Amino acid sequence: MILNRALILGTLALTTVMNPCGGDNIVADHVASYGATFYQSYGLSGQYIMEFDGDEELYVDLEKKETVWQLPIFSEFRSFDPQGGLRNVATEKHNLDIIMKRSNYTAATNEVPEVTVFPKSPVTLGQPNTLICHVDNIFPPVIKITWLSNGRPVTDGVSETSFLSKDDDSFLKISYLTFLPSADDIYDCQVEHWGLDQPLLKHWEPEIPAPMSELTETVVCALGLAVGLVGIVVGTILIIQGLRSGGTSTRQGPL
After folding, report:
1. Are the beta carbons of 163 and 141 closer than 8 angstroms?
2. Which of 68-82, 112-126, 232-246 shows the lowest mean pLDDT across its residues?
3. Residue 43: which region, alpha, beta or left (left: phi > 0; alpha: psi -120 to 50)?
4. Among positive and negative, which fits the CA dihedral 42, 48, 54, 58?
């Protein structure tokens, strides 16, 4: 993928902080971002998204001009007119054109993304699971994430979030891969971004405990047998002592 430089306009967002009590030091219980929008010169692309506690609720598909819910069940409780999102994006585009001219078309500063790969749940061979590729510190928000299995690109079972906004004006993106853990398979999350000199590969493979050697098995069995024998001997001695004590008490009579 050939990536060109881009100039980015910051996001326009309406953020709501919900907290049951006030005070000088406010700690937010929940944070919702209603209408985080950005537009960029690269590919003349942008994004309109709503978030809650850092998770994506919905975004507006700019090509299809429709609302896409992260979970379809959300649409049963509320609705959103995509025209509102499209208007915000159009405003961002207009502002971007002005700022680009004023800045003499200065390119944005590229940050180096941070990549972490981990499974959704503890891994058991043969049991379905999901790999998560968490890409943080993204700026500008132009990135390509590719899953590799044994060095070959994977497309089945792959999904990803939109760009999620952060307080420092950078973005994060999460890619998911559903898979069936196997001892023979290894996986990589490949990330391409302007902040990287070359594609970044983050490796993951299931951690399988190494089998014990024959010597180790022999030692463990011998120790187990020894502990068992000691237990039998100690138990026998205690039983005999108990019987002797009981017999002595029985023979004692009145003085």
Report:
1. yes
2. 232-246
3. left
4. negative
Tokens found for residue 69: 């819910």
Average pLDDT of the residues in 233-241: 75
Three-state SS string across 160-199, please?
ECCCEECCCCCEEEEEEEEECCCCCCCEEEEEECCCCCCC
3-state secondary structure of 238: helix
Neighbours of 228 (CB within 10 A): 10
Does pTM surpass 0.70? Answer: no
Secondary structure (DSSP) of 79-124: ---HHHHHHHHHHHHHHHHHHHHHTTTPPPPPPPPEEEEEESS---
Q: Is the pLDDT of residue 178 over 80?
A: yes
Q: Quick one: tokens of 93?
A: 């585009």
Q: Which residues contact 22 (CB under 8 A, 6 or more apart)?
A: none
Distance CA 103, CA 190 (A): 33
How far is Cα 164 from Cα 49, in angstroms, rounded to an integer? Answer: 8
- CB atoms near residue 51 (< 10 Å): 23
The span from the CA of 106 to the CA of 116, in Å, is 31
Task: List the Cα angle 188/192/193 in 5-degree steps.
Answer: 145
Average pLDDT over residues 63-83: 87
Q: Which among 70, 113, 76, 100 has a CA at the least distance from the CA of 200?
A: 113
Kindly report the average pLDDT of the chain as a whole number: 80
